[in-house]
Amino acid sequence: MRASVGLIGVGAFGEFMLPYLLPHCRIGAYDPVRDLEPLSERWAVVPESLEEVAAKDIVILAMPVQRMADVCRQISPYLKPGAVVLDVCSVKEEPITAMLENLPDHVDIVGTHPLFGPQTGANGITGLRIALCNVRGDRLDCVEAFLSKELRLKTIITTAEEHDRQLAYVQGLTHLMSKIVVEMDMPVLDHTTETFDIMMKMVESVRYDSEELFRAIENRNRFVGETREKFFDAARTIEERLARPGPKTDSD
Amino acid sequence: MRASVGLIGVGAFGEFMLPYLLPHCRIGAYDPVRDLEPLSERWAVVPESLEEVAAKDIVILAMPVQRMADVCRQISPYLKPGAVVLDVCSVKEEPITAMLENLPDHVDIVGTHPLFGPQTGANGITGLRIALCNVRGDRLDCVEAFLSKELRLKTIITTAEEHDRQLAYVQGLTHLMSKIVVEMDMPVLDHTTETFDIMMKMVESVRYDSEELFRAIENRNRFVGETREKFFDAARTIEERLARPGPKTDSD
């Protein structure tokens, strides 16, 4: 019999995962605000109550990091002994702390961060990366085996601290720059270079991300403040360099 | 008989053009600092004096915009009546003014900006874009026909002002952001997303550009100051937005 999965939170990422997970398991889904009936007409996913989805073999928490501690407390009474709980947050220290502090000892916990989303995974997820942090119990190996063998993802086993240190650059910087470009509200341009086209590809890959995801990336990672400071320091250094006279071939 | 071309300035871009131009013309080249003998062993290009290269049917000025006015004055006595002079600068108003003011009336002038370079054209230039501004005379059509039919570039006929307005974003912004990232001197990262990989592709496409090119793009375009102001204003707006409490699902 296929494993039963409870999906809590069916936003852009939760929905994106469905076609990849459904061939491998039965999924019951719960979302506190979204009506899941239309979704269940399209996919073989069963809308259920929070109590029901929390009682599955595997429980995936796919909500903003900002909601994690509350939801962990809500589902705790319903979790089965021996179940494994996973999150998919873009930061790892905060949700892992929330899970450790609020989930009962009789469940195993694995933190995950799929390093892609609906835009960057639009053409399939084979070969894309996912970061994994073991939190409690010994289920990391089977989670890792499923992700690499069945979904053909490239798994990166890491710690919450190392993940957040790296993602402070990897997402902190790219999402900041992309949101700045969006905020600039540029005119339509057709005299474009390859480099500009690449920049716009970066911008488009995050343009439709939720404000909550952006806030999680920028505000819920204790290392990202330093990245943003470095960014603005570097910007000032470049501005100062441009204001100084150029090399000697520069005629003024 | 194939047209004779004089190439003045054999930097990264001048050298990059050689294999594309050599099948169509004989090229004499001059550079004020670079020894061209090694280059002439690799390509069928003849190192010549400034007087000699200036006396060709077609003269290509491939030097930094900062040098344009001086070089125009230097070559003026040697230019053939009916010759056509082209530049390849990344901005257009300043070099076009320099050519108009300093080149004799008996030569035609076309301003060009190939919207690619050695990095972004590394896999060939077919389909890449080039901006063209007619400056003096009626040779734009034959330049345009050569570039689109023989080199298979996508030509964009424009004015110096419209070009510089657009490139203030297209290059002003991408080169600024890329130089900021380079200046940040990030640690080696392996927990990377597709979006980060795209950003690094942008950064790598300009990382090895000369400081002079960067200064031309940022300092020799009268519209770029406004772009940089908009960029920093947008950055401040984003910073302020992040500092305010989030939407109501945000638990703090």
TrEMBL record, chains A, B:
<dbReference type="InterPro" id="IPR003099">
    <property type="entry name" value="Prephen_DH"/>
</dbReference>
<dbReference type="GO" id="GO:0008977">
    <property type="term" value="F:prephenate dehydrogenase (NAD+) activity"/>
</dbReference>
<dbReference type="InterPro" id="IPR008927">
    <property type="entry name" value="6-PGluconate_DH-like_C_sf"/>
</dbReference>
<keyword id="KW-0560">Oxidoreductase</keyword>
<dbReference type="InterPro" id="IPR050812">
    <property type="entry name" value="Preph/Arog_dehydrog"/>
</dbReference>
<protein>
    <submittedName>
        <fullName>Prephenate dehydrogenase/arogenate dehydrogenase family protein</fullName>
    </submittedName>
</protein>
<feature type="domain" description="Prephenate/arogenate dehydrogenase">
    <location>
        <begin position="3"/>
        <end position="252"/>
    </location>
</feature>
<dbReference type="InterPro" id="IPR046826">
    <property type="entry name" value="PDH_N"/>
</dbReference>
<dbReference type="GO" id="GO:0004665">
    <property type="term" value="F:prephenate dehydrogenase (NADP+) activity"/>
</dbReference>
<dbReference type="GO" id="GO:0070403">
    <property type="term" value="F:NAD+ binding"/>
</dbReference>
<dbReference type="InterPro" id="IPR036291">
    <property type="entry name" value="NAD(P)-bd_dom_sf"/>
</dbReference>
<dbReference type="Pfam" id="PF02153">
    <property type="entry name" value="PDH_N"/>
</dbReference>
<dbReference type="GO" id="GO:0006571">
    <property type="term" value="P:tyrosine biosynthetic process"/>
</dbReference>
